[in-house]
Specification:
By secondary structure, the chain is mostly helical. It contains eight helices and no strands. About 50% of the residues are buried.
């Protein structure tokens, strides 16, 4: 099972009551393009890895975020705490991608973000390219990989709830 499959499963589980028209593709019932849009919005509108980690640090979630970057166990984060850190604008963008509410988006991101950041920081630190190279490889812009690798990775992340 790859990253995208994991993300799909987690996002599908977080969207109970969400827009089921969006939940018609992928391994977990969500369209893989929707999940890729979420990840893209997070990276582009959130300032990449360093921007997201900065938001978490400023919101008092620095220790939690550091666990995702480090090589140890990823600490969980509540949807409320993560939603406060990411802010209403970014959550609104993600919610519109999902076809759900900002609360559902925060829940989905609380399931998704720890594993995603962990996978994008395999050396235990933010890479020089702010995580875009690893993300590009997952999306098919690097060696091997492709959307299937991203979907598999995301699906695996979501299945660890």
């Amino acid at each position: 099972m790859g990253l995208l499959d994991s993300l799909i499963g987690a996002a599908a589980g977080s969207l109970t009551g969400g827009n089921q028209a969006q939940a018609s593709g992928g391994a977990g019932g969500l369209d893989p393009q929707v999940l890729m849009g979420i990840v893209g919005a997070l990276m582009n509108n959130g300032g990449g890895l360093s921007g997201i980690l900065g938001k978490l640090q400023q919101s008092g979630l620095g220790d939690v975020a550091a666990s995702w970057v480090g090589s140890g166990q990823n600490q969980p984060v509540s949807a409320d705490a993560l939603g406060g850190a990411l802010g209403p604008d970014l959550l609104g963008t993600i919610a519109s991608q999902l076809g759900g509410s900002q609360e559902q988006a925060a829940g989905t991101m609380a399931d998704l973000l720890p594993g995603l950041i962990d996978k994008l920081t395999p050396q235990g630190q933010v890479p020089d390219d702010n995580g875009m190279g690893a993300l590009g490889a997952l999306l098919g812009g690097g060696q091997g990989g492709g959307a299937g690798d991203l979907m598999g990775m995301l699906g695996g992340l979501m299945g660890k709830r």
